[in-house]
Amino acid sequence: METKLTRIAELAKADHDMVFTSLAHLLNKDYLKQCHRELPSGKATGINGITKEDYGKDLNENIEGLVERLKKKAYRPVPVKRTYINKPGTKKKRPLGIPDHEDKVVQRGLAKILNAIYENDFLDSSFGFRPSRSCHDALKILNMYIEKRKTNYVVDADIKGFFDNVDHEWMMKFLKHRINDPSLLRIIARFLKGGYMEEGKYFDIDKGTPQGGVISPILANVYLHYVLDLWFEKAVRKKCKGQAYMVRYADDFVCCFQYKSDAEAFYSALIKRLQKFNLEVAKDKTKIITFGRFVEKDGQGKPPTFDFLGFTHYCSKSQKGKFRVKRKSNRKKVNNKLKNHKEWLKTHRNMDIKVIMDRLKRSLNGYYNYYCITDNLLAVENFLDRVKQILFKWMNRRSQRKSFSWDKFILFLRRYPLPRPKIKVNIYELKKDINYIL
């Protein structure tokens, strides 16, 4: 199967106008078994409550039945189970769809096929949910555009409720540019219109993609490839008087401009462009700011900051006095993470201390892997200090008696040490396999 996907990728790369007419047959028994094995274990279950392990007990029989329904065009996805997760920095909740495991298997199969086709079409400005293109890669290229190019203005943009407002009709039109297999398109359309269950009630949907679904990231990238990426590259940049660059990660993107008139023209055009595809700019989160090494030289004072991918970007200087963009952990993200630590320790403070400390170590290591980048080490060390304070507070509430003085707590940490942060990512180390727009 990997050979077939590789062949599809080769054909897509060789001819960007090629339309694939026969793809649904790839969803066969062996391929879907492989997709089942690739899915992670221990994840939340859909409305049927079937885990990966449950499905795997009768894997051959389950997959045979699934393939039969796909061939007869009788396969219909189970409505996703809707739940809500906290939105960092606010009291709002973000909807999350949890598909049934069998639907995850099919979505995994579809996603791999779509990736094989579209990975060759996606532009270098796109970084979200793509192979070997991480958040850190997006930060690196944005850093280069600001430090090494003639960036004077930044448009920090946000699409209001993107995943909830994707237009199904436009989505299918975009897919038909590359795919003309009615069977495969029918399955994708059924996923889009599958609906969701919330508190025992079924709800139809006529727009949006199920955020949390395996197939959602690739569909989002396809949609924004046509709505935003190609438009910026083919129309916006050509009309600009000066340099212009965009860095997009999923629905979060930042645009850099040399001239204010270009930035303002782009912002006005962006509103109309998104409206055409039934999307909307979040005006309270979208702004044009002066930013860059030339701004400070004009004596306008310290430029404002902007947030992107969990970091607050600000203008500063290196030890040699040269202009430098620096990043620090976004305050809202930090506070939300600390709140999560507090709630977990409060709830589980009576667990075995080894279990508590092991969980805390794993959580901190995950935090370090993302936030320990160039110039942000001090902010991460401050985060660790606040975690220690929270730990000290709730370990003292394991019983009615106070368990620790601070001195005893320090001795306790020597026995159960927490990992210390160190730089994990050099923001100035660019990947050789990514073609940066110069």
3D architecture notes:
The chain is of the alpha+beta class. Helix content is 48%, strand content 13%. It is built from 16 helices and 11 strands. The strands form 3 sheets. Strands 2-1-4-5 form a 4-stranded mixed beta sheet, with no helix packed on it. Helix 13 packs parallel to helix 15 (377-395).
Question: What are the SSEs and their pairings?
Answer:
Layout (H helix, E strand, L loop, with lengths): L1 H13 L14 H10 L13 H6 L1 H13 L8 E7 L6 E6 L2 H18 L16 H14 L4 E6 L3 H4 L2 H8 L6 H11 L3 E3 L2 E3 L12 H24 L4 E6 L2 E6 L2 H17 L10 E4 L2 H5 L8 E3 L2 E7 L5 E7 L1 H18 L4 H19 L5 H19 L10 H10 L23
Parallel strand pairs: 1-4
Antiparallel strand pairs: 1-2, 3-7, 3-8, 4-5, 6-7, 9-10, 10-11
Counting DSSP H or I runs of 4 or more residues, the number of helices is 16
Mean pLDDT: 90
Give the overall form: globular
How are strands sequenced across the largest beta sheet? 2-1-4-5
Order of helices and strands: HHHHEEHHEHHHEEHEEHEHEEEHHHH
Rg to the nearest angstrom? 24 Å
Low-confidence spans: none
Please outline the major beta sheet: 4 strands, mixed
Number of strands: 11
Instruction: Determine the strand fraction and express it as a percent band.
Output: 5-15%
